[in-house]
């Protein structure tokens, strides 16, 4: 007969399902511990990704909530483990869940240590603009959206305004309102026009604006004998041969390819070049004996967290172009930088995906390669695009397309037709940083407010007044590299002179509304059909009538500011 063990007085009362109960309890304990560890680890990873190298973001409500989640999720298992560690640690390490827990803990700690070590690397000191430097910006408003043939009234008014204020578009020995010896585009220049064409609909540069800009180039007063190349690198997105059906134009089917082919058919030396096709091809410079198209890539720069890259390529007419050194002559073995001109034509929009704002500086992401281990997109925040500008030099002219903008801080850079805000403005200047900060303060942020979006702006922030915002971080770091390369630029609004004009009534583009414009309108008065803005149809309704005459008289004797 079995005698009950006195040390276990209730052993004879054990229920037959005690073993199953203990197994169930053990399973749920392991399940809770494992899920706590996974939840805590994911929360910490989210904090690291959202905070980047900016510890001040840890004060944001969403980051605070994630830290609380991590503390609760990891704290419970940690405390329980410490209490039981003396007698259970060896046993725990013999079990799979114990090994997984310890492994996760070591992984998280090593990852956090590496992350904070990387984030704590000191950034290069930022430079300040020259004390006597003032940026000049040219701003036209009320641009009619309807093109007039291959012309665009907004760009006509913009170049006229520039000429009124001393920045001549055409380089010519013959002085005129828009031409002079210090002008930008010479009759024999090769002109790169960098558009934004990564996104369809309103996410890309205005195609009607592109056409009007090309018209000004080929209408050089000395007779244009040079070449035009329309370029873009859309990185991961296909350009559809620059020929999508959904374009940023009044006629949505009008694409950059349509514009280029129209000018080609008229006999001009103009072509398209898709840098995206060579973004994975690393090459050397022409002077090194490499005639292949591709990207020249610099060594890794720890301050930039990336590698500078720039394209070199041969255009359809056969011109060898290095965006850094200029036009290459394989016969003489020499570069000509003076006759290579670069016009940057971005579109202003919210960039909620990463950097807050896309404008002139950010448009250079379509110049560099995102491949070849460049880390270009991530390195934007550290100023890599400004460093690129320091190498290839800033554009000879930036024309910021603000006809349709993305004025929703919660979307972008993709901008569908339904998500765009009409502003009918253009901004131009030779200082890309000044154009970006000025346009964001005076065009983008007011449009945010008008659309019902109020601060604080969502992360990544487009706030131009916060030096710690995502937008200002990349803009200010880019500014430092531009200044370090010896090119003047500024992010200080008090050092920016802006000139605003609507050009209304100046139908002969001489910078003023006078008797000549009135005479031109009266010559077509009463005409219906076959007339356009430059005949006096100021409201573009298909006729020249009393409404147009009244409009012109209301602005009579005005001119450029």
What features would you highlight for this structure?
single chain; globular; about 35% helix; ten-stranded mixed β-sheet; about 550 residues; about 15% strand; five-stranded antiparallel β-sheet; Type 1 dockerin domain; alpha/beta
How would you describe the overall organization of this protein?
This protein has 561 residues and is an alpha/beta fold. It has three domains: 22-119, no CATH class; 135-501, no CATH class; 504-561, Dockerin domain (Type 1 dockerin domain). The chain contains twelve helices and 17 strands. The strands form three sheets. Strands 1, 4, 5, 6, 12, 13, 14, 15, 16 and 17 form a ten-stranded mixed sheet that branches. Strands 7-8-9-10-11 form a five-stranded antiparallel sheet, with no helix packed on it. A two-stranded parallel sheet has the order 2-3. A hairpin with a 3-residue loop joins β9 (320-322) and β10. α4 packs across α5 (207-218) and α11 packs antiparallel against α12 (546-554). The N and C termini lie far apart (115 Å).
List the helices and strands and how they pair.
Elements (H helix, E strand, L loop, with lengths): L17 H34 L9 H33 L2 H24 L15 E6 L12 H12 L5 E2 L7 E2 L9 E6 L11 H12 L8 E6 L23 H10 L4 E5 L19 E4 L11 E6 L5 E3 L3 E4 L4 E3 L3 E6 L1 E5 L4 E3 L17 H4 L4 H9 L4 E10 L14 E9 L2 H19 L19 H15 L11 E6 L13 H9 L22 H9 L7
Parallel strand pairs: 1-17, 2-3, 4-5, 4-12, 5-6, 12-15, 13-15
Antiparallel strand pairs: 1-16, 7-8, 8-9, 9-10, 10-11, 13-14, 15-16
């Amino acid at each position: 007969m079995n005698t009950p063990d006195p040390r276990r007085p209730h052993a004879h009362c054990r229920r037959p399902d005690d073993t199953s109960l203990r197994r169930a309890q053990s399973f749920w304990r392991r399940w809770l511990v494992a899920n706590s560890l996974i939840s805590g680890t994911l929360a910490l990873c989210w904090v690291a990704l959202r905070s980047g190298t900016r510890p001040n973001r840890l004060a944001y409500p969403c980051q605070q909530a994630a830290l609380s989640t991590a503390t609760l999720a990891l704290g419970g298992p940690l405390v329980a483990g410490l209490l039981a560690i003396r007698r259970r640690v060896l046993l725990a390490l013999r079990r799979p869940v114990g090994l997984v827990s310890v492994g996760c803990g070591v992984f998280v700690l090593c990852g956090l240590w590496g992350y904070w070590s990387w984030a704590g690397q000191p950034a290069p000191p930022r430079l300040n603009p020259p004390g006597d430097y003032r940026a000049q910006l040219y701003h036209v408003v009320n641009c009619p959206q309807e093109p007039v043939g291959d012309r665009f009234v907004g760009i006509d008014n913009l170049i006229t305004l520039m000429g009124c204020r001393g920045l001549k578009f055409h380089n010519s020995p013959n002085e005129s309102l828009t031409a002079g010896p210090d002008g930008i585009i010479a009759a024999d220049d090769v002109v790169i026009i960098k558009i934004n064409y990564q996104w369809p609909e309103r996410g890309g540069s205005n195609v009607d604006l592109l056409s009007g800009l090309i018209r000004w180039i080929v209408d050089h007063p000395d007779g244009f004998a040079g070449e035009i190349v329309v370029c873009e690198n859309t990185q991961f997105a296909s350009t559809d041969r620059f020929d999508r059906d959904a374009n940023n134009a009044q006629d949505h089917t009008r694409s950059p390819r349509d514009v280029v082919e129209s000018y080609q058919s008229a006999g001009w030396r103009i072509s398209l070049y898709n840098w995206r096709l060579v973004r994975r091809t690393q090459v050397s410079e022409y002077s090194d004996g490499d005639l292949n198209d591709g990207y020249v890539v610099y060594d890794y720069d720890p301050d930039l967290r990336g590698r500078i890259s720039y394209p070199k390529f041969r255009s359809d007419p056969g011109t060898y172009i290095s965006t850094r050194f200029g036009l290459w002559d394989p016969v003489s073995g020499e570069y000509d930088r003076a006759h290579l001109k670069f016009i940057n034509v971005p579109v202003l929009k919210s960039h909620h995906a990463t950097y807050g704002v896309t404008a002139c500086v950010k448009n250079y992401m379509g110049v560099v390669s995102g491949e070849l281990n460049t880390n270009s997109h991530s390195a934007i925040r550290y100023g890599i695009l400004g460093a690129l500008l320091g190498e290839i030099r800033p554009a000879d002219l930036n024309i910021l397309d603000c006809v349709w903008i993305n004025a929703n801080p919660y979307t972008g850079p993709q901008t569908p037709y339904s998500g765009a805000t009409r502003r009918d403005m253009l901004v131009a200047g030779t200082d890309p940083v000044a154009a970006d900060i000025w346009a964001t303060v005076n065009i983008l942020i007011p449009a945010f407010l008008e659309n019902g979006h109020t601060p604080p702006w969502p992360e990544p922030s487009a706030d131009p007044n916060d030096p710690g915002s995502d937008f200002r971080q990349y803009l200010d770091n880019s500014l430092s590299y531009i200044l370090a390369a010896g090119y003047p630029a500024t992010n200080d609004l008090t050092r920016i002179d802006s000139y605003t004009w609507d050009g209304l009534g100046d139908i002969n583009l001489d910078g003023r509304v006078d008797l000549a414009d009135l005479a031109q309108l009266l010559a077509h008065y009463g005409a219906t059909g076959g007339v356009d803005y430059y005949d006096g149809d100021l409201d573009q309704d298909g006729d020249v009538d009393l409404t147009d005459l009244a409009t012109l008289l209301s602005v009579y004797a005005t001119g450029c500011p």
